[in-house]
Design brief:
Layout: E1 19-23, H1 28-38, E2 44-47, H2 58-67, E3 71-74, H3 76-84, H4 88-98, E4 102-105, H5 114-124, E5 129-134, H6 145-157, E6 162-165, H7 184-193, E7 199-202, H8 206-216, E8 222-226, H9 230-237
Parallel strand pairs: 1-2, 1-8, 2-3, 4-5, 5-6, 6-7, 7-8
Helix pairs in contact: 1-2, 8-9
Length: 256
Amino acid sequence: MEFLELPKRTAGNRTYGLTSIIDLGTPLEELKSILHDYAPLIDIAKLGFGSAYVTPNLKKKVDLYKQHDIHPYFGGTLFEKCYYQNKIPEYLASLRDFGIDYIEVSNGTLNIPLQERLDLISRIKKDFRVIAEVGSKDSSQEMAVSQWKDEMKQLLEAGCQYVITEGRDSGTAGIYEKNGNIKCNLISELIQDIDSKKIIFEAPTPKHQMYFIKEIGANVNLGNVKINDVLVLEAQRRGLRSETFYLEDSECKLPL
């Protein structure tokens, strides 16, 4: 159907308006069925936590995503585990073996100094598209708005393709309060100073997703989207849900 006036969506090999899903163990045959219909709605697929290390048929799953023009990568927790055990060279070699060109550099569990992350990014950005996560998975740790901004700016200047705002798959840390409420003032401050097209906001539930769509527009980058929610999310982006019914053209809402 092509007769309604809806917010315009980026398409194809898009650089913003991204939907980044979290794969928490979707069986291979089930994934084939899902991607048969919904692959065009997905841009990036994160194999959550450190689950990639114990995923059956991992190579087949990675290849399946790539066949559908979706960029797969391994969750930041696996990166941090490798960092903790001094196995980063082995980790990078493994990514190359799997033909994965995205890597997440995070410090959600460990407190990896910013300068160490920046140095690593400068070394690997020629071989990988780097996504860096900002914020802690520990809901008791609070970062000042100025620290959020400073880290995100430095990570982008170091060569990251995108920065991710930590939210966990539960939406209870980082940019969220323990009860799941969004830190609205923080988001408002971030998008004033940083190009929102370079930020992937972790938004694991439709409620969280609708907030960012209404605040930033249909082409906001959203991460930690559950694979079974991609159609719901696309309908929300296009103003086809009550909460986003009056959504305007997204291009005019994204901060320039």
